[in-house]
């Protein structure tokens, strides 16, 4: 079965959210800086391109593309589909979540969902870009698995925590501390608000990296529809600010 999109088209989310077509945009003019900044929809194409590079060989990213019913398609076509999926996801976070980056070339990008936010009404935009098995793996296996796992692990804090959905650095920019800055930028906010931060990692070597920033592994879940089982490591970072300090900061300031 062939995918719905054509080789010279670009997936769009226009029909689901009132937005412009997801076509390449000029690179935003930004002064060179290594400071973390939050971006909007005007930069989603560039941010998505960086994430596509960062996750080019990621097993979970390939899980929806390297399926038996995609075997006849070229690597070039699969790459285009991978990039378009990243565009969808990045654009959705620009509207529903928070997208942070570092450097004007979007060398590292993080996609976050803040407390109280969710994307249940927007994930369906991915359906048009996947073939049958890819859709099944995402909507029937991974999506419900992640929802249930997040609920089981966080409990009453599920809707009152920060969620690191994607964090990626382009291969050419690794080793410069960009991911560290992106993590600490948002976990610092979470600390000030007294909230936990949640993530899933598909790469076992990253577990020790996240531990350096206070994340603890809570659970391992499996995706089993592929040729081999894929593991997702569930990690949570509790607020590093003591409860009494958070409570004191939330008190109204009295005039003297």
UniProtKB/TrEMBL annotation:
Transmembrane residue ranges: none
* Superkingdom: Eukaryota
Q: Which SUPFAM superfamilies match?
A: Acyl-CoA N-acyltransferases (Nat) (SSF55729)
Domain N-acetyltransferase residues, every copy: 109-237
A single GO molecular-function term is: acyltransferase activity, transferring groups other than amino-acyl groups
Q: Which InterPro entries match?
A: Acyl_CoA_acyltransferase, GNAT_dom, Trichothecene_AcTrans
Gene3D superfamilies xref list: 3.40.630.30
What is this protein's name?
A: N-acetyltransferase domain-containing protein
